[in-house]
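Shipment paperwork, digital attachment
Item: protein structure file
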Amino acid sequence: MHPQRLFILEKILTNALKHPNSEAVKDSNGTFTYSQLVEQAKRISTQIEEQHLCGSVINVDVGRCKERVVVLLGILMSGSFYLPLEEEWPERRASRFLSAKSVVVPHRG
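Attachment content:
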């Protein structure tokens, strides 16, 4: 591994500083620039911090869309860990994860 390799959070934040108006995430409903991505992720991170959940496992119940990237980045910014839940999972499997000490963070635009 190259010694200068950065983690994904660092790379995104660096790109946001260097290229704030460049396209960062795109799906069929539109795009987020790096500045929009980081701004929205900071809101998610603040919500997690206000709930004293930093360092927790956070279940993510967001479909495969650009908002999912916002939520995942916000979780990482808070120092927490994410567990993406999938709609295709059988109910029994999903309920095991939901019963663990964690929280589901729905994205609100």
